[in-house]
């Protein structure tokens, strides 16, 4: 049975690492096989549906959505970046605030908010977004592992460890993760200018925005050609085609009412076109919006029947066919920003003139977040109950609509977590965890230092090949077993695993934050590997030293 369990787990990991099979499908298949063959009891395989860690992840996604909706995070970011003069200056100013934020909420909305901010710096001040986005994304990933609620993998580790009698509190990960985060941030700050210098794929002079401007019946341009008004070719935009019905006409054709003018433009060109009086578009407001962590489909998903209309996005094809991903930006028009507040796919938005939203319930949202953190940190209530109450309050106080709260849930992530708990159950129930723990013990020869090195290296490798949830679900029970055999503190060993799971710096597909900054920063897989290897190496050395010293001191006292 142990060999069969090992085969099921290995096949699942290979399928996930291949990228050809969705992680959810691979995990679901493992659950079915394990249930049918009796590798683990069905209630145990499905225990993830009631796992406290996963409940907390879901609740914190809603709370993070509420915080982002108030504009609190975006206002702080734009204020911090308002006077920066270089990429290093931007990273230095952002490092501490985003580290604190990453420890208190999911990192995805933070990175989603930083993408348009970095592109704004690039467009307006020539500060290369390439030298800002990846360093900031890596810092948020490292900082998120410091607290229990900072990452879903930490919550998953705590949820798996709880039935075994190991209690992971709000700051259980901090003694290991905090020194690593500090060292990692220093490495990022010092190496980014050398490793990420040069232009990315999208720079200020690049017309990488597709703009579709509708021509109203009151437009001044009707009956004239674009060249008459000098809008056929400028430094900021160029007219590519005139769409009439379903046909694309030559840019030199006379403009008629009902046409759609298709431009390629810089970001500044988008606002310049919308502000032109030639098209009769005088009663609309223009907003820059960023897609939330649960957004999918096309940029047209931003649109509603209430008046939101997408006019620009970074794509080469029609807007209606452009794929939307978390962190993607678009320009939309709407008569009132209230429509954007209620649009579930919008994470943040700001007026194209530069003003950010200032909803009146910012204080309520921040108070809810603080209450959740304080109550969970001091053990007043379990963290899953505190976070769930906070999520409910986000809706009850009107910060989020019920629909927005539901849309804040990233079902793909949640189901991966549920499946990962099942994968961990297979490892435990089949006896595979005991076998692996014995193997580690024999390999280490009873040496605590070698145990630390083995877990650090294994975690870093697995998390870059498959999901961090899978790494957590497999290694957590093994770590608890080896800690029991060697008489070392399981909390420190689990903190080591939680910290190393954040070392997703080499493979751009191993963490959502990597994917969110990849296109806007013009990064390639090679640039991720080149920048990430040194960071992983430095972080591994730090985590091994810190973990060993902590375990050594704990055994002495």
From TrEMBL:
Alphabetized InterPro entries for the sequence: Cit_transptr-like_dom, DASS-Related_Transporters
Entry's transmembrane regions: 44-64, 132-162, 168-190, 362-379, 413-437, 443-466, 486-508, 528-551
Keyword Transport: yes
Protein location: Membrane
Keyword tags: Membrane, Repeat, Signal, Transmembrane, Transmembrane helix, Transport
UniProt GO BP: transmembrane transport
Entry's Gene Ontology cellular component terms: plasma membrane
Membrane topology: Multi-pass membrane protein
Domain Citrate transporter-like: residue ranges: 20-440
Position of the signal peptide: 1-17
Record-given protein name: Anion permease
Gene source species: Candidatus Accumulibacter proximus
């Amino acid at each position: 049975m142990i060999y069969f369990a090992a085969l099921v787990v290995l096949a699942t990991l290979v399928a996930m690492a291949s990228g050809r099979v969705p992680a959810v499908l691979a995990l679901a298949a493992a659950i079915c096989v394990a249930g049918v063959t009796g590798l683990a009891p069905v209630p145990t395989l499905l225990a993830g549906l009631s796992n406290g860690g996963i409940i907390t992840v879901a609740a914190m996604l809603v709370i993070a959505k509420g915080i982002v909706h108030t504009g609190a995070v975006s206002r702080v970011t734009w204020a911090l970046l308002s006077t920066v003069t270089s990429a290093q200056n931007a990273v230095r100013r952002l490092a501490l605030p985003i580290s604190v934020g990453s420890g208190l909420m999911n990192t995805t909305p933070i990175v989603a908010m930083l993408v348009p901010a970095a592109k704004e710096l690039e467009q307006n001040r020539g500060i290369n977004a390439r030298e800002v986005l990846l360093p900031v994304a890596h810092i948020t990933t490292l900082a998120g592992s410091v607290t229990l609620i900072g990452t879903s993998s930490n919550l998953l580790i705590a949820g798996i460890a709880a039935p075994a009698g190991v209690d992971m509190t709000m700051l259980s990960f901090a003694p290991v993760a905090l020194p690593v985060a500090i060292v990692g941030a220093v490495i990022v700050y010092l190496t980014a200018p050398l490793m990420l210098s040069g232009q990315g794929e999208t720079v200020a002079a690049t017309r990488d925005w597709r703009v579709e401007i509708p021509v109203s019946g009151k437009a001044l341009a009707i009956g004239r050609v674009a060249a008459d008004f000098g809008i056929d070719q400028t430094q900021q935009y160029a007219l590519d085609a005139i769409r009439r019905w379903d046909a694309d006409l030559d840019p030199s054709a006379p403009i008629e009412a009902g046409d759609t003018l298709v431009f390629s433009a810089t970001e500044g060109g988008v606002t310049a076109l919308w502000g032109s009086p030639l098209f009769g578009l005088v009663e609309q407001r223009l907003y820059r919006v960023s897609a939330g962590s649960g957004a999918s489909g096309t940029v047209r998903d931003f649109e509603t029947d209430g008046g939101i209309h997408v006019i620009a996005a970074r794509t080469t094809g029609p807007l209606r066919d452009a794929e939307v991903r978390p962190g993607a930006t678009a320009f939309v028009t709407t008569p009132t920003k209230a429509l954007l507040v209620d649009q579930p796919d919008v994470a943040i938005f700001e007026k194209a003139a530069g003003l950010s939203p200032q909803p009146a319930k910012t204080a309520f949202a921040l108070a809810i977040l603080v209450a959740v953190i304080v109550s969970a940190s001091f053990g007043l209530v379990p963290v899953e109950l505190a976070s769930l109450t906070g999520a409910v309050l986000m809706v009850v106080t009107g910060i989020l609509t019920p629909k927005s709260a539901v849309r804040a849930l990233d079902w793909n992530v949640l189901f991966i977590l549920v499946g990962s708990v099942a994968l961990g159950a297979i490892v435990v129930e089949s006896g595979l965890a005991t076998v692996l723990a014995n193997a580690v013990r024999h390999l280490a020869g009873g040496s605590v230092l070698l145990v630390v090195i083995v877990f650090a290296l294994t975690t870093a490798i697995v998390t870059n090949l498959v999901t961090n949830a899978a790494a957590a679900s497999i290694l957590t029970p093994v770590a608890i077993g080896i800690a029991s055999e060697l008489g070392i503190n399981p909390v420190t060993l689990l903190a080591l695993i939680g910290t190393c799971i954040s070392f997703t710096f080499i493979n751009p597909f191993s963490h959502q934050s990597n994917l969110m900054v990849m296109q806007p920063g013009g990064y390639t897989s090679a640039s991720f590997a080149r920048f990430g290897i040194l960071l992983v190496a430095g972080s591994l050395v730090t985590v091994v030293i810190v973990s060993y010293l902590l375990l050594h001191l704990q055994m002495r006292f």
